[in-house]
Specification:
globular; alpha+beta; six-stranded antiparallel sheet; 6 strands; 183 residues
């Protein structure tokens, strides 16, 4: 075997673990997607909504991978949050609360004119048979506008970590029920 051929095989072999991890992550994430009817969720004007945190979310995180994120909450949820006071008291957002997480390509702070590649939505709707933890978990493709409702437990299980001590934001040291919201 020639050196050039050996070098090329090593390059390919070194990429295989990364490709396998990417494929496995996609399979796990999309295995949670159900065939549920997608509710119409209007997010027009969401950038005028309150941000749940101004901290730059520029670190990899399970489920959202290596993407910069910004999170907005509609007035229903923001009013509840403002009236609730302390984050040390248990949270239970009212039905109608909508959380929009902008997802950008890469971890760098996006340019002011850069559009998100996707949105993840949390919609509080306890009555829906597709709700997990009282929330609908939706991914919206920014280019097509197509929504996918996740009816498996991947999203709710991961976000369940917000209800206990965790490594993000204020870390929830008292393990207060935060209704699946890290920020």
């Amino acid at each position: 075997m020639h050196n050039a051929e050996r070098t090329e095989r090593r390059k390919i072999a070194s990429r295989e673990p990364f490709a396998a991890v990417a494929l496995l992550s996609a399979a796990v994430l999309f295995s949670c997607a159900g065939k549920a009817a997608v509710p119409a969720v209007a997010i027009d004007g969401y950038r005028t909504w309150d941000r749940t945190t101004l901290a730059p979310l520029n670190f990899p995180i399970p489920g959202h991978e290596s993407h910069y994120r910004r999170i907005f909450m509609n007035p229903v949820g923001s009013a509840y949050r403002a009236s609730h006071g302390s984050r040390d008291a248990p949270f239970d957002y009212p039905d109608g609360t909508v959380v929009v997480k902008e997802i950008f390509d890469g971890l760098d702070v996006p340019a002011s004119d850069e559009a998100p590649v996707a949105f993840t939505l949390m919609v509080k709707n306890r009555a829906s048979h597709d709700a997990r933890g009282g929330w609908l978990w939706i991914v919206r493709d920014a280019a097509s506008g197509k929504d996918t409702v996740f009816t498996g437990d991947f999203c709710v299980n991961c976000h369940g970590g917000a209800n206990e001590s965790h490594p993000y934001g204020d870390k929830n040291a008292k393990s207060t029920f935060r209704d699946y919201m890290f920020y």
